[in-house]
Amino acid sequence: MRSKRMTVLAIGLAAVLLAGWTAMSLAADGKALYDSKCTMCHGADGVAKEMWAKKGARSFNDPAWQKEKTDEYLIKVTKDGIPEKRMPGNRTS
Q1: What are the pLDDT digits (tens) for 38-56?
Q2: How far apart, in whole angstroms, are the C-alpha atoms of residue 60 and residue 57?
Q3: Is the overall model pTM greater than 0.85, yes or no?
Q4: 9, 35, 58, 93: which has the fewest Cβ within 10 Å?
């Protein structure tokens, strides 16, 4: 259950930070952003797809990953991407 909360929190945080959306549309907009930009590699459920996991994509449901990442890191990576891992940034505002 914690991993689902973390995924939902990460999606919502990305929505607020990237586009300044209102709290009322936060969940829907966060899900839309995640669905359009992240699911290709990280999966709809936060579990990295096998092909991309082999290339370094992480599963957001992994407790070890959750523990090692700060909010600041997640915000920076979401906005700027990780070029050496071929992860694009997603600045929407």
Answers
A1: 888 888 888 888 888 888 8
A2: 9
A3: no
A4: 93
